[in-house]
Design brief:
This protein has 610 residues and is of the alpha+beta class. Among the domains are: 108 residues, Phosphorylase Kinase, domain 1, CATH 3.30.200; 197 residues, Transferase(Phosphotransferase) domain 1 (Transferase(Phosphotransferase), domain 1). The protein is 51% helix and 9% strand. The strands form three sheets. Strands 1, 2, 3, 4, 5 and 6 form a six-stranded antiparallel sheet that branches. A three-stranded antiparallel sheet has the order 7-8-9. Helix 15 packs antiparallel against helix 16. It starts with 6 loop residues before the first helix and ends in a 23-residue tail after the last strand.
């Protein structure tokens, strides 16, 4: 299977859930439908989610994938096993079904998830901007959830407004997390992250290599800071809400010293320490961001804040080399010197061994430190984001092609639909007449007896309408001759009512059919318009990422080696990423602050800032 189905392919399959699903509960469930009675999906970049309601009223979210992901089944099973061992109402139950749905004869995986009620985080905040006490309770609930994740050694991996739902029960706020595609559990230790998370919530240095129990710390701090800010200064929402964020956008994290939002928050006394903690979190490695509980308990002194901001504005790359960078040249010189001395003393093999061993060890250290450079990590993240946008665009373009094909089929298959509709009407008309003829009448047919009537009733066949060829052939202990006579009885009744069965659609039925087809075409046109709009949005975002990549300096492994040998400096700035303007839109400004090297320091996170 080269391609997975598109959302419209899944939509078509779910019109007959009893055929599409392998799960018995889902086969008897009803999908949520639109005005035309068609299953209505919630579409994303890599999946389409269909709300389903079972016969007992239980609701599920069925996630159908649009692309194949490597090791997808193993990842979901590890997450499911881990969540089965914890007792926390933030998580929903789910099950991965490798061959859960059939589309056009092929089977594909799905996730069957408990339906979580609630309001998405950003919409809940927007609805309660005039109730700071509610936002304060929400922030406390969020801090509690972050502490619980730390204790459970779990990380969601993509904390953002759309994956956090808020339920209310009186004064109690309940937070629920959905979408576990990027979730970390201990069984996945050593894996890479399936995605790098929403750009408006994630650390600018995070790449797919960052995958561990500390994964949620930066996003958790971002959300907590935004909640506190909205409680203290609700007017910021109108200025910085972009529909896909909680005040902050990715540009704020790349250069917080140029962010008007950071400046606004730093000028607000109750938010100053928290803002400064987030500011600094942007300039340390993702794994070095402290837990939210530590941030809440360990605010910095004002003198430390001012020193931190001053050093950031001056350029932390140029300020000091890391311990590894300072030691590299003396160590390399020492190894070469010792090797030279060994060679001069006649120990040539030992000298070569020392050079090879030292060179190999040094190359490994250099490579590891190079990959940890903030500038290198940020370029990698941007490249991954650009690739993700490109992949999303390809999927959306495939959806456009699928919708265009369905639209064309609707236009060209009018005759087939007319015949299909006519057959349905003819079957309905014939059924209305045959349902009044009970199977007891077959005793009047030569060769059929009361025994045959009993056998028909045992098979739950009561009227001539139910005496279909398929039903007759399924009967046991009835001879072929008796089956033939039953069919003849049914055929005679059909001939009797032939004049009562219409041979064409009525004008009203014809108009209804044409209106139905026209409404389907209009619905597809609306889907096409929305999909093309998504494509344009994705292209704009990809271009923005590519522009940032183009402006960001490149650091090759060769240049980093020259830097370690004191032959060449590293770039003293990371380029100028777009900074949100007053309406939250990207606007290019001049950047002045560098992207720092990884901090090679054993001191605590807070102490490193001074």
């Amino acid at each position: 299977m080269a391609d997975y189905p598109t959302p419209s392919d899944y939509q078509q399959a779910l019109q007959t859930p009893d055929v599409a699903f392998a799960d018995s509960e889902l086969r008897a469930a009803t999908p949520r439908t639109n005005a035309l009675g068609l299953p209505q999906p919630i579409t994303g970049s890599f999946a389409a989610v269909f709300p389903m309601t079972t016969e007992t009223g239980t609701r599920y979210a069925v996630k159908c994938f649009l692309t194949a992901e490597p090791a997808q089944q193993a990842r979901y099973e590890a997450v499911a096993d881990a969540l089965d061992t914890v007792d926390h109402d933030a998580f929903v139950e789910f099950g991965y079904q490798p061959e859960g749905i059939t589309v056009a004869g092929d089977s594909y995986p799905l996730l069957k998830m408990e339906w979580a009620e609630g309001t998405t985080l950003n919409r809940f905040v927007e609805a309660h901007l005039d109730q700071p006490e509610v936002l304060d309770r929400l922030a406390e609930a969020w801090a509690g959830l972050m502490a619980d994740l730390e204790v459970m050694d779990l990380a969601h991996g993509d904390l953002q407004h759309g994956n956090v739902l808020v339920e209310t029960a009186g004064e109690v706020l309940r937070l629920r997390l959905v979408d576990y595609d990027t979730m970390y559990v201990p069984a996945l230790e050593g894996w890479e992250s399936a995605e790098v998370g929403h750009r408006n919530y994630q650390h600018p240095d995070r790449t797919d290599a960052d995958f561990g129990p500390t994964l949620d710390r930066f996003a958790g701090l971002v959300i907590y800071t935004a909640l506190r800010a909205c409680a203290v200064r609700p007017e910021l929402w109108a200025e910085y809400d972009a529909g896909e964020n909680l005040l902050f956008r990715d540009a704020d994290f790349y250069t917080p010293e140029e962010s008007p939002l950071f400046d606004a928050l730093a000028e607000t006394e109750p938010l100053r320490d928290l803002t400064d903690a987030l500011w600094t979190a942007c300039y340390v490695e993702p794994a070095d961001v402290p837990p939210l509980a530590a941030v809440r308990e360990g605010g910095l002194e004002p003198s430390q804040q001012s020193v931190s901001r001053s050093r950031t504005r001056q350029g932390r790359d140029a300020a000091a080399r890391s311990g590894f960078a300072r030691a590299f040249l003396p160590a390399a010189t020492g190894v070469v010197g010792v090797a030279g001395a060994l060679a001069a003393a006649g120990w040539t093999i030992a000298a070569i061994g020392l050079l090879l061993g030292g060179g190999g060890l040094g190359a490994g250290w250099v490579g590891a430190r190079y990959r940890r450079l903030s500038l290198v990590r940020r370029r990698r993240r941007l490249q991954q984001e650009a690739e993700r946008f490109a992949s999303t665009i390809r999927e959306l373009e495939r959806e456009v092609e699928s919708l265009q094909e369905k639209r064309e089929n609707l236009r060209t298959s009018m005759a087939e639909r007319r015949e299909e509709r006519l057959r349905e009407i003819q079957e309905e008309a014939l059924h209305d007449h045959l349902k009044h003829h009970f199977v007891g009448e077959v005793r009047e047919v030569e060769g059929l007896t009361h025994k045959h009537v009993v056998q028909l009733k045992v098979a739950n066949i009561r009227t001539a309408s139910e005496v279909t060829p398929k039903a007759i052939e399924s009967l046991r202990r009835i001879s072929d001759r008796a089956q033939a006579r039953l069919k003849m009885w049914r055929a005679a009744l059909e001939e009797k009512y032939a004049d009562a069965v219409p041979d064409s659609l009525s004008p009203a039925q014809e108009r209804r059919l044409q209106r139905y087809v026209q409404h389907r075409v209009e619905d597809i046109d609306a889907q096409l318009a929305r999909t093309r709009e998504k494509i344009q949005t994705q292209r704009t975002e990809r271009e923005r990422i590519e522009e940032r990549l183009e402006e960001m300096p490149k650091v090759t492994i060769g240049r980093y080696l020259r830097y370690l040998l004191r032959l060449d400096p590293l770039p003293d700035r990371a380029g100028g990423p777009p900074v949100p303007d007053a309406r939250g839109n990207g606007q290019q400004t001049e950047a002045h602050a560098p992207v720092p090297d990884p901090v090679d320091d054993d001191r605590s996170w807070w102490a490193q800032r001074s």
